[in-house]
Amino acid sequence: MIANQILLPLLMLSIPRPSAALPLTPGNIGNVFGTPESDGKILQRSKRGWMWNQFFLLEEYTGNDHQYVGKLHSNMDKGDGNVKYVLTGDGAGTLFLIDEKSGDIHATKRLDREEKAMYTLHAKVLDRNTNSELEPDTEFNIKIHDINDNAPKFAKEIYFASVPEMSEVGTSVVTVTATDADDQTYGNSAKLVYSILQGQPYFSVDSENGTIKTALSAMNREVKENYQVVIQAKDMAGQMGGLSGTTTVSITLSDVNDSPPRFANHSFRVTAVESTDIGGAIGRIKADDPDIGRNAEMEYSIVGGHDTFNIITDQTTQEGVIIIEKALDYESKRDYEFRVEVKNTFLDVRFINGLQFKDYATVKVTVEDVDEPPTFTRNPYIIEVHEDTAAGSFVGVVSARDPDADNKPVKYSIDRHTDLERLFNIDSINGTITTLKALDREMSKWHNISVVATEINNPRQTTRVPVFIKVLDVNDNAPEFAMSYDTFVCENVKAGQLIQTISAVDTDEPLVGHKFVFSISATNPNFTIVDREDNTANILTRRGGFSRREMSMYFLPVVISDNDYPIQSSTSTLIVRVCACDSRGNMQSCNPEVLPFSDGLTTGALVAILLCVIILLMIVVLFAALRRQRKKEPLIISKEDVRDNVVSYNDEGGGEEDTQAFDIGTLRNPEVMDANKLRRDIIPEMLFPFRRTSPIKDNTDVRDFINGRLQENDSDPTAPPYDSLATYAYEGSGSLAESLSSLESAATEGDQEYDYLSNWGPQFKKLAEMYIGKSPDRET
To answer: Which chain regions cross the lipid bilayer (predicted)?
Structure first.
């Protein structure tokens, strides 16, 4: 049987005695086996009395060699080397190695209890030769003994906490807890003790649970707000040699309302100009409160109230803003004085006793005079005027004055942007408003204008006032039909039958309401009218037997009068058509019947034929008149006709000797400039004037010439907007011998000889004298 032996320093094990009778020796520790007798008797195996199945090993071994754990030994091992020990289980072969011959167990590296506290392994005893088991598996444990190798650690490096100021001694602030990874069940390695390293004498810490408490009373946030406290946690129950860890706790004193508001100055002087608008601020006052947040919120009020001023609290700056409740007037009152109270809106009952959380200050307001604009006696003005009032009639009066003590004079004017039709005028001195045109209520019932009052000495001081002018009604419009009526009467109608109910409207608005009277001529044989006394009337038939053949349409004049003064009346015409109706009076057709003639032609056909004959006669007469009045039209009808026209002249020139005649060469050659045209009656000073270079290149054909001229006319901005005819006498580029015509002889080069002209006869004598006489060789 395998025996477990622990051979570790610093560890003493007590091994119980086995129940067998064999003595305890290193060779049989743990189990006792029976042995066969030599006499051949079978001896029974004795029971296993006990088994030591646990080794103890210290963690954090720092030696260089393998750490010896223990030794396994079997009774079957006679020391002859035939026994082989085999180890299996947790860490076998890696963490733990066994000597196959001796059974010694070693750890290959250092072990950490915090990673794993116990390992379970199995040991086997085999025959080295046959590899058969000599004994069954034996299970045993290797337990790692803890040492103090872990320092306490806090969950956070920095803790943040707060406690109200003025708290009592012992008020809990925060609890900080550290943890130790060592075994809490073995020794004092994990037993922690808390202490304070920094933060005394303001705070203390409970040594057992790490709760931080206040150590001083009346700690004032206004004196010191933030504190840094360092807490230490030490294991080994705080004994020397124990490991420790620290953390920092940032403690802030939270504010409480322990300080009342106070005015630094109990008297304030404020200046306000009298032109300040109602609701405008004229000054600010402020009380000091060392508290913060809600505890520093203040409320300002005027003691006893005031009819001219009020004070409100600016929630952002906690200032008291003095505002105007009533308009100031320097001329009426210049100085005011009142008392202001300030107090906290939130009070802490713990600090009310013995303290007044309010304060008072006196405010004096001085009103300054300003140059005020004129003020009107009323604002706005409402004036009534009758319509149809003649131009220049009186409408009303506005009045304004300078409120300053000087009472400077003012002048009046109408803002013409509010009177674009220029219907009104105002006297600049006394403010009397008159009409410039007659007013019509039916066009506009109200006129809203703005009157401007300006100080004469200071035109920048102006005031506007709206003037609402109501145009009162005058009965100047006659009533008329309310709508256009489509009235018909049936051919089979009877006398006294209703055919139409009419009503009227009037653009006037009398005070007592409209009252219209309807009437028609009493001699009307066809219709009669009945006034219903409600501004409507019924049209009735006076007779029956209407016929479309006799009359297809009747025009009935209706006279409508009102009852206002002066009475206005008008005549409206009601058109009544005669229609064919069924027995129930429903209209079927209103077209007039066509009466047949004996020759078979109807009236409509005869009228159409007659119209055709008249039209033909008119066409014939008009055609004859046009032929009679036709005459030759001039070539140019008017000076406005700027189109190109061909004008023919029958004048003949004087021949070759006529030097005053028109130069036909200009017409024949469009390239010659008018500015350089030479006179024919005198010898030119320059024989060869400047010749404009033709835009047509040499040896260009007629097509290119025409295209060039076409482009020039298309791009000419002065050309007429319609098609025109342009004629050019261009013959093409010609031959190499060039043209023999004398029309362009004035444009030849200056190095040409002209002696041959004297041989051409008397006809060219004048020409020869002109050119040969100017030759440079002749002059020399």
So the answer is: 605-626
